[in-house]
Design goal:
- There is one protein chain.
- The chain has 17 helices and no strands.
- It has helices spanning 17-43, 45-74, 83-95, 99-108, 116-129, 144-155, 179-186, 188-191, 197-201, 215-227, 234-254, 260-269, 273-280, 291-311, 318-335, 344-368, 377-382.
- The longest helix is centred in the N-terminal third of the chain and has 30 residues, at 45-74.
């Protein structure tokens, strides 16, 4: 008997990893093109050109980091005497390290106003330290794009603006504050009223990271990738359900009544919830191999994101929660190892308990943070004079 030893991700599918990555890249590129064209149409050439340059820097630095890491193993390979073959092997490994995918995701995780140097440094940190030092693609613990985004948020927070220039227009979603920061300022149970649902759905509000704007585009990509089995449909479904139920019961106990359904829906559509669960949390390398393991990680991630978004100082938390669950994935895989049809009842109870804990958090939060109809999100934005504190898309 011969055993084939290959690095992850281990996907039981007749298609190659490369072909699946190409389809994933097409979806990401489609989202970026929509956003770039939207900036051109809505705000002019400066905004669109800025988005394009961010894209070039992110992809270029991510691919360049892979190329730098692969130099010793390819170009310095003493076993291969032909220098042309060395370069050919180097190019092949660069292409199949999928730094271009990480660069695309990283681009869409950034707000439009990020400085170029912050983009370049963070893309390098995310790829080199988030992936390469662990052994390259298939061996990394953290999602490289999310690692770079969290680093950028921590080290270059003043650069993470949702506008280009020095001063945005007061009260304007498209050129002013991050929608997450603004909603936090007004109070989560208050400010959500002023967010227009139709504009969110069609991607007409550019008040966060570039990839989170067009909701309809994210839904189409999610359905396509799930049908093509490029991502596991359970991950976005369980993530959204957990997040939605938490916000729903938060609204009920917070005094929103029937408006709680719209409140929960809007809280899923703002920030990085949809983009994170479709393109970041579904990464097969940083997720457990088993079905129940992926569901467990997903529910934990949604719970942690709710804790950070509504209780901590940060107004988002999706990126941080993904990094935390990336660290937990090996442990969860170890705890539930064995045949997938074993201990189903115990696994289901654990997953349900985490979902219930998240819902209880929503109930408690709503109880102690009642809605105040007199508070307006637009008014809350206008009353804050220092727009430099507005951090774009705090993923």
């Amino acid at each position: 008997m011969k055993f084939a030893v290959e690095k992850g991700p281990h996907i039981q599918n007749k298609r190659s990893t490369f072909s699946m990555m190409v389809e994933l890249g097409i979806c990401l590129l489609g989202l970026f093109l929509f956003e770039m064209i939207s900036y051109y149409v809505s705000f002019g050439g400066e905004w669109g050109n800025h988005a394009l340059i961010i894209f070039v820097i992110s992809v270029g630095v991510s691919v360049g980091s892979d190329a730098l890491y692969l130099i010793p193993s390819c170009l310095c390979d003493k076993k291969e005497k032909d220098i042309k073959i060395r370069f050919k092997n180097w190019g092949y490994k660069i292409l199949h390290s999928y730094g271009w995918i990480s660069g695309l995701i990283f681009t869409l995780l950034l707000p439009i106003g990020v400085d170029y140097y912050a983009c370049a440094v963070s893309a390098f940190i995310g790829t080199f330290f988030g992936k390469c030092i662990f052994g390259g693609f298939g061996r990394n613990i953290f999602n490289p794009a999310v690692a770079g985004r969290v680093f950028c948020q921590l080290c270059f927070s003043s650069s993470m603006k949702t506008y280009i220039g020095t001063a945005p227009a007061a009260g304007d979603f498209n050129a002013g504050a991050s929608i997450m920061f603004s909603t936090q300022q007004a109070g989560w149970l208050n400010g959500t009223y002023d967010i227009p649902l139709d504009r969110l759905f069609l991607g007409q509000i550019h008040a966060g990271s570039m990839g989170e704007s067009c909701i309809i585009g994210l839904i189409i990509c999610c359905v396509y990738l799930a049908v093509r089995r490029i991502i596991d449909w359970r991950t976005p479904v369980f993530y959204i359900v957990t997040f939605y139920l938490t916000c729903l019961f938060m609204g009920f106990t917070g005094g929103l009544g029937a408006d709680s359904f719209a409140f929960a829906l809007k809280n899923i559509m703002i920030g990085g919830v949809l983009f994170g669960c479709v393109f970041c949390l579904t990464d097969p390398v940083t997720s457990p191999a088993s079905r129940y393991g992926r569901i467990m990680v997903t529910v934990i991630c949604a719970f942690v994101a709710c804790l950070i978004r509504y209780q901590a100082a940060a107004p988002e938390g999706v990126g941080s929660s993904i990094i935390i669950t990336n660290m937990l994935s090996p442990l969860i895989s170890k705890l539930i190892k064995g045949k997938s049809n074993q201990h189903i009842a115990r696994k289901s109870i654990i997953i349900s308990s985490i979902m219930v804990a998240s819902i209880i958090f929503g109930l408690v939060y709503g109880t102690f943070h009642k809605a105040n109809a007199s508070v307006s999100l637009i008014e809350a934005i206008a009353q804050i004079p220092n727009y430099s504190v507005f951090i774009g898309g705090a993923f």
